[in-house]
Design brief:
With about 375 residues, this protein is of the alpha+beta class. Helices cover about 40% and strands about 20% of the residues. The protein contains ten helices and 15 strands. α2 runs antiparallel to α3. The two termini are about 40 Å apart.
Length: about 375
């Protein structure tokens, strides 16, 4: 996961105000619960002497509807008298709600949630086109789909004297044009919504025509056999298939990065484990993929001054390691892969490097 969305946030001067709060509407009294929650958050912000205008703006953001039913978590970061970042994530949060004022933003809960969910584009296809929608996760189901395509074969469009071969050619052209329209809508939306995967469901022939139009698109394309546009198709079966496909893809990606780490620690020299070694790799700008157990990293502390050259202020003092690692990954455009420490031999912080550490040029000597 690339932390582009918060790169400009972590490079701003602090102190930072971070709020993580549940904003879902899952019960009849959800609004009353949110009001009570906001009262607690407001008192905490006022106790930290956060500017009244920032407190007011945070309250407005927390009161906004999350855009879909079910559980939802909103993360807000402010600094310098303004809100710098606000994002809503659907599904249950991995970390407790929190209000914090500190030298670095507390973005680990947001990263952990984002890392466990895959934003994707969904096209439920048939030969008349597709219902196309874009989702932040499998929990984000309440998204309106756009009908794309729509060219149809009507009886009056086919003269009685048209030969069967001509009719077949006309049919294939219509199907192909619809598929091209769907593929074009997906190409536009994938970039706009930051999708990592395109999920194609519905008729097999229609799916294959759409996939052909996605050639060269730099995201994974997966097929789901269940569900479709036909009357009586099971929406539950569709979403069960989507969940299974995305879970399989995440497991495959995790296995690949763990293999990279293992290979890198061997002869390749492009892997390292341990907080201090990874921080030193950040100093050299070497970290390509940061593997981190964010829960475990919250229990560790770092003084950036002990690692001269980190792209962070050196007067932060002792800071929880998860704050430092997330800020460094965002600032240096390193990918973050959230993995339990048990999968990296008990080490909560590891990295796949951009080049062989053993070939790093030594400083010139005089």
């Amino acid at each position: 996961m690339r932390l582009t969305a918060v790169q400009d946030v972590v490079t701003r001067p602090g102190p930072f105000v971070t709020v993580h709060a549940e904003v879902g509407r899952t019960t009849e009294d959800a609004r009353q619960q949110l009001e009570s929650r906001w009262t607690t958050i407001r008192h905490a912000l006022e106790a930290e002497q956060v500017e009244p205008a920032v407190v007011e703006r945070i309250g407005e953001l927390l009161q906004e509807l999350p855009g879909a039913g079910g559980e939802a978590r909103r993360t807000i970061v402010a600094a310098g008298g303004e809100v710098l970042f606000a994002d809503t994530q659907h599904g249950a949060g991995h970390f407790p709600e929190a209000v914090e004022v500190g030298p670095l933003p507390d973005l680990a809960p947001w990263v952990a949630h984002a890392g466990s969910h895959v934003p994707f584009a969904l096209a439920v296809c048939d030969h008349e086109g597709a219902d196309v929608s874009f989702h932040t996760s499998v929990h984000d189901r309440g998204v309106d789909a756009d009908e794309v395509g729509g060219r149809t074969l009507h009886e009056h469009q086919v003269p009685s004297h048209m030969a069967e071969r001509q009719y077949q050619r006309h049919s294939e052209q219509t199907y192909r044009h619809n598929a091209e329209d769907v593929a074009e809508a997906l190409r536009r939306g994938v970039g706009e919504h930051g999708c990592r995967v395109v999920v194609l469901a519905g008729g097999g022939d229609a799916r294959r025509l759409v996939e052909a139009g996605l050639d060269g698109l730099q995201v994974e394309v997966v097929h789901v056999e269940d569900g479709g546009r036909a009357q009586g198709s099971s929406e539950e079966a569709l979403w069960t298939g989507i969940e299974a496909a995305l879970a399989s893809l995440q497991a495959q990606e995790e296995a690949e990065v763990l293999e990279q780490l293992g290979t890198g620690e061997g002869q390749a020299g492009t892997g390292c484990r341990g907080l201090d070694d990874v921080l030193d790799a950040f100093v050299r700008g070497q970290v390509d993929r940061l593997l981190v157990d964010l829960q475990a990293a919250r229990e560790l502390t770092v003084d950036p001054a002990a690692h001269p050259g980190l792209p962070l202020p050196d007067d932060l003092g002792e800071v929880p390691a998860d704050r430092v690692l997330v800020a460094l990954a965002a600032a240096t455009q390193a990918d973050v892969v959230t993995v339990p420490a048990a999968q990296t031999d008990g080490e909560p912080v590891s990295a796949v490097l951009r080049w062989d550490n053993r070939t790093t040029p030594a400083a010139d000597t005089v």
